[in-house]
UniProtKB/TrEMBL annotation:
GO MF annotation list: 2 iron, 2 sulfur cluster binding; metal ion binding
UniProt cross-references to Pfam families, sorted A to Z: Rieske
SUPFAM superfamilies assigned: ISP domain
UniProt keyword terms in alphabetical order: 2Fe-2S, Iron, Iron-sulfur, Metal-binding
Protein name in UniProt: Non-heme iron oxygenase ferredoxin subunit
Domain Rieske: 7-102
Annotated PROSITE patterns: RIESKE
Organism: Mangrovimicrobium sediminis
The keyword Glycoprotein appears for this protein: no
UniProt keyword Isomerase, yes or no: no
InterPro entries, alphabetized: Rieske_2Fe-2S (IPR017941), Rieske_2Fe-2S_sf (IPR036922)
Amino acid sequence: MLSSEFTRFCPLADVPVGGKKAAKINDTWVMVCNTNDGLFAVSAICSHQDKPLFNGRVRNCKVTCPVHGARFDLKTGEPLDLPATKPIATYEVRVVDDWVEVCL
């Protein structure tokens, strides 16, 4: 059964437009990115070799893995470049009372 519970992630002020923040929710590393197209929550771990995505560049609703250069669509999690062939997880995200909340 899928959970529909949201967890407080961080204050919205911690992720201004153009910013990102990674944190663990339960045992899952999540990265929230604030783009011109809105907030997105995705896995903070690359699907290629389980490397962290946090230091990757976020541009045009895409995150680039800093290790091997694979890019992922923040909206869908789909890989856009090799060597990644599997998507990263995406999560529902919302803002409540100036807090970013994520649903795993």
